[in-house]
What we know:
about 270 residues, mainly alpha, 2 domains, 9 helices, 2 strands, rod-shaped, NAM-associated_C, coiled coil, No apical meristem-associated C-terminal domain-containing protein
Amino acid sequence: YKGGSKRTKNFHWEEDEVICSGWLYISKDPINGANQTRSMFWSRVHAFFEKEKKTTAVRSESSIMHRWLTIQAQVNKFCSCYAAIERRNKSGTTIQDKIVEASKMYMELDKDKKSFTLIPCWNILKEEDKSKQTRKKNKSTEVSRPRDEATNNEAITDAAAQQIEERKRPQGIKKAKEGLRRGGGEACMEALDKMWAKKEAFDKEKEKAKEERFMASLEVDKAALELEKKRVSNEEKKAEAELLKEEKEIMLVDKRSLDPLHLQYIEMM
């Protein structure tokens, strides 16, 4: 994000946590939630951030809005992965196991194979995601649609405002399509399940083929070992036969024809 001619540092995870907490707090404000405009909403989020942040970085209202959109997109995608893992309902699976599996799925589905690095944000927003799934079946009662207000913000402002509006009314066809495009909805989750099932089947086949190659290699090694044992055994038998032959020849030697030294050697054997 630019401020003047300088570019500020990337957001720290502690800043991300404050942004998520601020978004939740301002969204659920029972007094102003239904009446605040878009600019008022983000102005309050920015004020919350400035009050609660633990860093010295200077962030504009626009930069916080942009960062929230990035966080929301990634957390929504991870929530879909986590929900897909939960639906498998494997016995003995801990929450940490599910997080690990969901993280693997997230990376597999990411076009750039990037890992999910916003677990602290997910911990803050996950309950909101669950309640949002429940609200999709009923009319929203928490925050009504903000009234129209003239604004100079372009597409990014409209996109940010949609995050407030999705909490205020039943999901329509256009919204449902948008949800599917962004990775939400049952159809998307079913697609995730199918993709992950195919990957697991492929991994199992790879592992099976690897094991078969190993077993084949092991059989070759065993056969080679048996051949080596036979060779050594044959060598030993050959040496033993040679020794017996020498002993037999010595026994048949006429001792009278030997000189005293050779005679003494034979008698010592």
